[in-house]
Specification:
This protein is α+β, with helices and mostly antiparallel strands and about 425 residues long. Helices cover about 30% and strands about 20% of the residues. It has eleven helices and 16 strands. The strands form four sheets. A five-stranded antiparallel β-sheet has the order 2-1-16-15-14, sandwiched between helices. Strands 12-5-4-3-13 form a five-stranded mixed β-sheet. Strands 7-6-11 form a three-stranded antiparallel β-sheet, with no helix packed on it. The longest helix has 18 residues.
Length: about 425
């Protein structure tokens, strides 16, 4: 009888801890906000609210269903980078050979991209007369599995390469009625056209660019260029004043490594601005650190089998950025992943990485409040919008949540407004 009573008390204790912070009327309010007859009943919605202190679920709705996560996939890239890369980028592998240095890129995206620290490539090659570059260690294609082909001229769809320069982007500025592009070596391939276009547009199959002088606006500041080994060595030669030669040699076992740049600024830019290019290059660096080859698919497989094997649902995770519609992840797997990140990072660093509602990054213009209460990664693509991260309740405590939406026929801004109503309700409850 004592054993039976003890068992009953344990069950009661577990259940009371599970729902201790949501009263029945609060639970019913959430059901009304997310259930039948609500705005969210018109499409697939998944939600989970999780108490990080008691490690218990407070509320869930369709948390076992798989959603297209869009850029919330970058949380997987963040976790992988923290676990594998530590505090520095993986920039180069190289071999010294008399007056020649042979280089294999390792995925570092920082060379002449945004305001990142210079990775020191010019300094490394300064003593040598000739640089031989190889991309034979690059296994992943330029575009990820399931990326949309017609994104090719948008800056969020830059190509993946083993050693990027300028972020694999051409910068565009308006001068008079036409564009000036940088690097300047692309300028001879800029042509006027009578087509009714308002921006500089790149040809699908080549690095030829077109603009209409009567309509040109230059609101698209960056445009991806088509990468190739020949183009890269030309750009690298111009940038360093050294002769670079392409030669597809295999990476020898006996080589040196350059780990040049601090990792945190790259992680911060990826998270706050949802930079797809950085996310993809980070996964290449993870692969290089693990296998000495740049293979995103293999790196993802490794992470899922080792550090992420215990997530409640196995993710279908195919790229670093979330550009692919083949990514499919459940809200409760997102919560499981975020809890891992939360446990391994100091609070100050974590809050530097997360967009804050009404203040920073992709949340600067939403979830506004006198004091920020949402700290989370957003993810948006056509008919899909998700938010994963932390909510600060009126009690001052932080809770983890995943709020995922797919297959809706409205604008993302409308879905976001309705989500905000729910999150305000949750904030006031907890």
């Amino acid at each position: 009888m004592r054993k039976l009573i003890t068992g009953v008390l344990l069950i009661v204790s577990f259940n009371s801890s599970l729902f201790a912070q949501l009263h029945r009327n609060q639970y019913l309010k959430l059901e009304a906000a997310l259930g039948d007859g609500s705005f969210f009943s018109g499409h697939l919605t998944g939600f989970m609210l999780y108490d990080l202190d008691s490690q218990s679920v407070l509320y869930e709705k369709n948390s076992h269903q798989r959603f297209i996560p869009a850029s919330t996939t970058k949380l997987f890239t963040l976790f992988s980078s923290l676990v594998v890369l530590g505090d520095s980028t993986q920039t180069l592998r190289y071999v010294r050979d008399g007056n020649t240095i042979r280089i294999w890129g390792s995925g570092d995206p920082s060379w002449k991209y945004k305001k990142f620290d210079d990775p020191g490539i010019s300094k490394l090659i300064a003593p040598y007369d000739q640089v031989i570059f190889s991309d034979a260690n690059m296994m992943s294609p330029a575009f990820g599995y399931g990326w949309q082909w017609d994104d090719y001229y948008y800056n969020y769809s830059a190509e993946r390469t083993s050693l990027p320069i300028y972020g694999n982007l051409v910068q565009v500025k308006k001068v008079g009625n036409g564009p000036t592009v940088f690097p300047l070596s692309f300028q001879p391939d800029v042509f006027p056209t009578n087509r009714t276009i308002r921006e500089l547009e790149r040809d699908f199959h080549s690095n030829k660019f077109y603009y209409n002088p009567s309509n040109f606006r230059a609101r698209e500041e960056f445009i991806p260029f088509i990468s190739s080994p020949e183009l890269f060595v030309k750009l690298a030669s111009d940038a360093t004043g050294k002769q670079w030669i392409y030669q597809a040699d295999s990476l020898p076992g006996n080589h040196e490594i350059l780990r040049a740049s601090p990792l945190f600024p790259i992680l911060k830019e990826m998270m706050l601005e949802s930079d797809n290019f950085l996310a993809e290059q980070l996964m290449l660096m993870v692969s290089d650190r693990l296998f000495q080859r740049l293979d995103t698919e293999r790196a993802i497989e490794y992470m899922l089998k080792t550090y992420l094997f215990d997530l409640p649902d196995e993710p279908q995770w195919v790229d670093g950025s979330g550009l692919s519609r083949h990514d499919l992840i459940t809200p409760r797997a997102m919560v499981g992943l975020f809890e891992k990140i939360y446990r391994m990072m100091p609070d100050q660093q974590l809050f530097e990485l997360l967009p804050a509602g009404g203040q920073s990054g992709t949340l600067e213009n939403s979830y506004k409040s006198e004091q920020p209460y949402i700290f989370a990664k957003t993810g948006t693509m056509s008919n899909n919008h998700s938010l994963v991260g932390l909510i600060k309740g009126k009690s001052g405590r932080y809770y983890c949540f995943a709020f995922m939406n797919s297959n809706y026929p409205w604008k993302a801004s409308e879905v976001r407004r309705e989500m905000e109503k729910v999150m305000v309700m949750v904030r006031d409850m907890i």
